[in-house]
Design brief:
The protein is α/β, with parallel strands linked by helices and 340 residues long. The protein is built from ten helices and 17 strands. Helix 4 crosses helix 5. The relative contact order is 0.11. The site of flavin-adenine dinucleotide has 28 residues, from helix 7, helix 8, strand 16 and helix 10. Flavin-adenine dinucleotide binds next to helix 7, helix 8, strand 16 and helix 10.
């Protein structure tokens, strides 16, 4: 190799290229989502999963607000490099815009990035299959455990079975379930290089029009430490709010709901917990007037402590509960709230 480095200038250039390709050799590309100027909790969890792959990590952040979030992340000694594109085209993470960029990064100098990881958020769920299709790779979605850089545990059949999956693809693409990994703690021990990257032409014909966000003073359901959830047993929207809001306020909890409660119009569908809703694993989950159908359990059974309040002592929710309270929610919840 040394014989290549004859002139002083070319030695610098060649050796720097060589060093940078070595740094990326056999490494992980992590997609980091931001909300406003901050990194989302599910992305911090995906970054923890990325550290468990045991390879150098390059994080990629996109959109006009990404620079500030990138400079927060740049303090982490767990990250080796950060790529940022501030193009407004990446605001709102339209998958038609984002996937060509990610595919390009993964294709560029094939073999450099052996792994790609994204949070299993709505954005990640939109992105991962597209990138998989564009690279002709089978992604492994919603992993809950990293066994090695190509082998993972993921739930199947609404969480009733856990499968261990080994990817044989050259590049391993995964999404990580937020509740299964603790958020990465940014240790402020480093100053990671940030590189700006260009917008990649996508030929996209879809356009972001508008979004309606339900604003709530309650913590975010996906990352709250305490969740108070209500089901059909709470009868209607007025009772749902009257019973759950004071309890949630006392506990600083997020509010969740069963699908039956959502379908009956008790609350917005963004609060649904379960197989087709959010998957949560708070320190404390209080289920009020919820029967405990498997599709609901799929979204909350990994909570650390489960309290169930139901008037039917045969209710299946009691099979997963750590603390069972058999009683009428309209009597016991106000009493509990008052005692708290
Ligand atoms: C493909 C598919 C996906 C699904 N996805 C989800 C999902 O993501 N999340 C989800 O939750 N469900 C989901 N479901 C629906 C699920 O099967 C159940 O129908 C739903 O969870 C039931 O909600 P519930 O427990 O609120 O209602 P119910 O099953 O009607 O239970 C109400 C409970 O309230 C109790 N109760 C009544 N009055 C009182 C009182 N005064 N005090 C105390 N307790 C009382 C009753 O004893 C009962 O146990 C899905 C179903 C399918 C088929």
């Amino acid at each position: 190799m040394l014989s290549l480095f004859r002139s002083g200038t070319s030695r610098t250039v060649i050796s720097r290229n060589f060093a940078s390709s070595c740094a990326r050799l056999n490494s992980t590309l992590a997609f980091v989502e931001t909300s406003g100027k901050t990194i989302t909790p599910s992305s911090l969890s995906a970054l923890t999963a990325a550290t468990q792959l045991g390879k150098p990590i390059t994080a990629v952040l996109l959109g006009s607000d990404s620079a500030e979030a990138a400079s927060q992340l740049a303090k982490s000694s767990k990250i080796n490099k950060i790529l940022v594109s501030k193009s407004e085209k990446y605001d709102h993470y339209l998958p038609e815009e984002v996937s060509p960029l990610i595919t390009n990064l993964l294709k560029d100098g094939a073999g450099d990035f052996t792994n790609f990881i994204t949070p299993a958020s709505a954005v990640g769920k939109n992105l991962l299959p597209r990138v998989g299709a564009q690279l002709d790779v089978q992604p492994v979605s919603d992993i809950i455990k990293v066994i090695s850089a190509d082998t993972f545990v993921r739930p199947a059949y609404a969480g009733n079975a856990l499968m261990t999956v080994k990817s044989k693809d050259k590049q391993v693409l995964v999404s990580a379930r937020g509740s299964a990994f603790p958020p990465l703690e940014i240790d402020e021990g480093a100053s990671v290089p940030i590189e700006e990257i260009e917008y990649v032409e996508s030929g996209n014909i879809t356009e972001f029009v508008s979004e309606e966000i339900i604003k709530s003073e309650r913590p975010d359901l996906g990352s709250a430490k305490v969740v108070v959830s209500g089901g059909r047993g709470l009868k209607n929207k007025e009772e749902f709010d009257k019973i759950l809001n004071p309890l949630a306020a006392k506990l600083g909890a997020a509010i969740g709901a069963s699908r039956a409660a959502v379908d009956s119009g008790f609350c917005d569908n963004s609060l649904q917990v379960g197989q087709t809703g959010k998957v949560v694993a708070p320190d404390l989950y209080i289920a009020v007037g919820i029967s405990g159908a498997i599709q609901h359990l799929a979204g909350m059974k990994d909570s650390k402590v489960i309290v169930a309040i139901n008037k039917d002592e045969e209710s299946p929710i009691f099979n997963v509960a750590d603390i069972s309270l058999v009683g009428d929610a309209f009597e016991v919840v106000p009493e509990l709230t008052e005692k708290l």
